[in-house]
Design a protein that fits this description.
Blueprint (H helix, E strand, L loop, with lengths): L33 E5 L5 E4 L1 H7 L3 H4 L12 H11 L5 E9 L4 E9 L7 E7 H48 L3 H29 L5 E3 L1 H15 L4 E6 L7 E3 L1 H18 L1 H6 L2 E15 L2 E13 L27 H11 L3 E7 L2 E9 L7
Parallel strand pairs: 7-9
Antiparallel strand pairs: 1-2, 1-5, 3-4, 4-5, 6-8, 9-10, 10-12, 11-12
Helix pairs in contact: 4-5, 6-7, 7-9
Bound molecules: adenosine-5'-triphosphate and magnesium ion.
Magnesium ion binds next to helix 7.
Length: 374
């Protein structure tokens, strides 16, 4: 991308300030799509937060400026605006190139039909943002469908399971031959094992949300002591905390469970490293600003990285590690990461993973939600 000059000449300080028009909602700032409202002369009347981010300008700087200044070639935009004023369409979509201060950025533009007062609303989305949003939406639909399937299946299994176990117990009481009791014991034992699997499958759907102010470091400290107690010796759990982080509005138990599941996986993967005393897990917290994920824009979020120096995620499950019942571990149910991800999503957060031999990092990004934002 070539470097271009900033789109706007310095604003004339003596000119009267242009006020955003009535009807322009502050709620537009929560959208991930850039919005620009134009007057009949195609000058900027208002710009939401996403559009200001896209052009790296403040609303004040651009008010009253012609929109064509914001794009590399003004021709397509001028034609579209003419069409909008002539009511040729309700919405016209086209690709254009936005002129940022330091670069040219391909964008997707939607010009809407002019309003009765001749104002025109223009939507702008970077192409990268658009394809990410499409991917996100597809992935979310898929995840939702999976969750429903699992929940329904788990309920179907749960109901007859109680009957099978009860019947086996009754049968056991009637049995005279001791050797036959071994068989009923197998039935009871296996029914219990299935019961606990079904309970794990249903766990994310059962918890009532008990949200309050939570310090992420209390969550980390709890997980740290639980993991150190479970994996005695040969394992270090390092803290790398940004102690200035604000508190989250969250369900503490859910967060502890989510982080514990990830940290336990790391400790379990560090078999050779624990044996030779080099095993290390790092719990790192950072603040993140101006993020867009799961179709929402967040001003502030807390990032937690859980990093280990183990062998990395086995190639045959790489990319599927969050999927339910996918396990690369002897005796694993493959539900730990699914549950962790569900809990993080219930906090409107996202969880990702990067893994190469010697370094695996799970990143949990939790937006700072308001108390009424559940
Ligand atoms: N830090 C890690 N390093 C290497 N492999 C990992 C790591 N974290 C997860 N994995 C792999 O991902 C798989 C899925 O993890 P997940 O927690 O969902 O299930 P599990 O640990 O097998 O079973 P459980 O339901 O008991 O947690 C693991 O079996 C393991 O193979
Ligand atoms: Mg696990």
């Amino acid at each position: 991308m070539s470097v271009v000059t900033p789109p706007f000449a310095p604003i004339d300080a003596s000119a009267p300030p242009v006020q955003p028009p009535a009807g322009w909602s502050a709620a537009y700032d929560a959208l991930t799509t850039g919005l620009v409202l134009l007057d009949a002369q195609a000058r900027v009347l208002a710009m939401n937060g996403a559009a200001q981010d896209l052009w790296s300008v403040s609303q004040k700087t651009v008010l009253g400026q012609p929109i064509t200044e914001l794009f590399e070639s003004s021709e397509a935009m001028q034609r579209a605006l003419q069409g909008a004023r002539d009511h040729d369409f309700t919405a016209l979509r086209f690709e254009a190139v936005a002129r940022q201060a330091g670069a040219l950025v391909p964008v997707h533009v939607v010009v809407n039909e002019a309003r009765p007062d001749a104002k025109v609303l223009v939507e702008v989305l970077t192409l990268a943002q658009q394809s990410r949003q499409e991917r996100d939406a597809h992935w979310q639909q898929q995840a939702q469908a999976n969750k429903e399937l699992i929940r329904n299946l788990a309920h179907e299994i749960k109901n007859p399971l109680g009957g099978i176990r009860g019947a086996a117990q009754l049968l056991q009481m009637e049995l005279v031959a001791r050797e036959l009791v071994d068989y009923t014991n197998v039935i009871i034992h296996e029914a219990d094992r299935l019961q606990s699997l079904v309970d794990k499958l249903l766990a994310p759907h059962r918890h009532a949300h008990a949200r309050a102010a939570v310090n992420i470091h209390e969550v980390c400290e709890r997980v740290r002591s639980l993991v150190l107690a479970e994996f005695l010796g040969g394992l270090r759990v390092q803290r790398d905390y940004d102690t200035s982080l604000p508190e989250l509005h969250a369900d503490k138990q859910q967060l502890i469970q989510a982080v514990l599941n990830v940290a336990q996986n790391a400790a379990q993967a560090l078999v050779a490293e624990r044996a030779n005393g080099t095993a290390c897990i790092v719990l790192r917290t950072r603040v993140a600003r101006q993020l867009t994920f799961a179709g929402k824009r967040h001003k502030l979020a807390v990032e937690l990285h859980i990093e280990d120096n183990g062998p990395g995620i086995a190639p045959h499950i790489r990319g599927r590690e969050f999927a339910p019942l996918v396990s690369g571990r002897e005796g694993g149910t493959g539900l730990g990461l699914t549950l962790a991800q569900t809990f993080v999503q219930q906090h409107q957060g996202v969880m990702t993973c990067e893994s190469v031999p010697g370094r695996t990092v799970f990143k949990l990004v939790l937006p700072l939600l308001a108390a009424n934002d559940n």
